[in-house]
């Protein structure tokens, strides 16, 4: 998901330079520079910076300070604090609901009147125009009333209220050679005045105007209504306090190979992460920033557990079934490697138990305050396909998403079926309420150059890209609005004091 955000630095040194990481190359580029504020230890910068925000990617920002005098710090004390606030640009999330009618349009059909429709064009910075909306065709009339339509402000004018919007009026023809009736121009700012004399437009045909001295117009188009609607976003819920609860489930079936052997997908290489570790770290390090306590349940399935060798498809990696939480992604990694030394890889590959485990928690919190994401990392073919489908269909009604990463060389046809991008998954004649599963094969992200950092970044980007829309689809269906964001934090004055 892409949104636009304004970043405003406040309360720091006299000048600051923003640098950001370039995702594809891993190096940095200068993004912007604040103005200089003289003779103050507590400046409040005015200049804002607009940058893209991606939920599914980590954007590293570096703040460079430029001071005319060096900071002389007091040992053991801080030498200043920088506070960065961010907000989404409202116009990028607004949509407008508009309705138009026309009066006395030119007659174009020989055996009838006209079949008019409108075509809206957004102007571009290079002076060209791009079609952004077409109305329906109203048959056999010179005084049409078109249905109200909804369009985003970004599509209509790219957030620029004064950018030209060109509207063309055509008479529809079956063969596609629609007859041009005329055109007019307006802007978002003009349209936002609503129904008034300012929004009655003469439709002009330049060719007719050039040929006929008495030409007035080819009819008029009138704006009947203009309503602004602000779409709530994923960030609105996060700012309102919604927590993303992240759970990990790891495949411990015997098909992964002996962890002590280099051929194993669970091989404990002392020098680099195995495929399971890379997938876990790539996804976990992005999503952990949306969980305030950084405590993550970590489960395993398909292993024999000590001391009696019973097979479990829902065991805690930390060995504590009453409290399977690990602190941070590093804690999950530690529990994962510890489990490899204590359990026996076995089978079969059952997904339903871990899905139902998370679903039980999701079913208890349906007020929008929490959303659950389950990451399943597996190497093989699902053994309980029917039960897994049923679990997913049931979970589609809950605040929950499932990410499946397939590691190893196996065929993952069944995983593609669970993904549901082509055909919505069903069980016992009942279809999933929402698409909540995203599957990717890890082998597609092996970087040929051996740069695992880039591989992990691309993996995280693709598996997390659908989460915001899946999240919003649940909130929309349930009619849950985001809670108001708390007021911004203002540090006490003494924290901002700096010795120069």
TrEMBL record:
Keywords from the UniProt entry: Calcium, Metal-binding, Repeat
GO BP annotations, alphabetical order: cellular response to calcium ion
CDD domains per UniProt: C2B_Copine, vWA_copine_like
Domain VWFA: start-end pairs: 245-446
One GO molecular-function entry: metal ion binding
Pfam families, per the entry: C2 (PF00168), Copine (PF07002)
Domain C2: 78-201
Signal peptide: none
Gene Ontology cellular-component terms listed: plasma membrane
Family (UniProt): Belongs to the copine family.
Protein name in the entry: Copine 8
Organism of this sequence: Amazona collaria (yellow-billed parrot)
Classification of source organism: Eukaryota, Metazoa, Chordata, Craniata, Vertebrata
